[in-house]
Specification:
Length: 127
């Protein structure tokens, strides 16, 4: 029996699982893929301040000192020099790190598990 079941092992689900487990809940994370972060479905561009606020380790991202955005008729260039504000995140490694953090907090992780539906049975929910 679990207090919390999280459907999906993305960053939000894994972070919620970690927080719930740290709070004493019995947590189960259900992920349909065979590994966390595979396949990767996001670009990995992010803001350094946000990652630091979330206490994401610096070894998971690489600062970018110059960014160039190109459009059909315009372009924008940002140079940060010694004070980079954006980075490229190793998304796969981040997901795996988040899964490790959730597991270390006590969450149970289940890969290759697809949630097909949910139904309420009194005070319980069955997936």
């Amino acid at each position: 029996m679990h207090d919390v079941i999280v459907a999906g092992g993305g960053p939000a689900g894994l972070s919620a699982a970690r927080a719930a487990a740290e709070g004493g809940a019995r947590v189960l994370v259900l992920e349909r893929e065979s590994a966390f972060g595979i396949p990767t479905r996001t670009s990995g561009g992010s803001f350094i301040a946000g990652l630091r606020a979330l206490e994401i380790p610096e070894w998971l991202w690489t600062p970018i000192r110059e960014v160039l955005f190109l459009g059909p008729t315009t372009r924008a260039r940002f140079e940060y020099g010694d004070d980079p504000r954006v980075c490229i995140l190793d998304v796969r490694a981040l997901y795996q790190w988040l899964a490790e953090q959730a597991a270390a907090a006590g969450a149970e992780l289940a890969l290759r598990t697809t949630v097909l539906g949910a139904e309420q049975d009194g005070a319980q929910v069955r997936l």
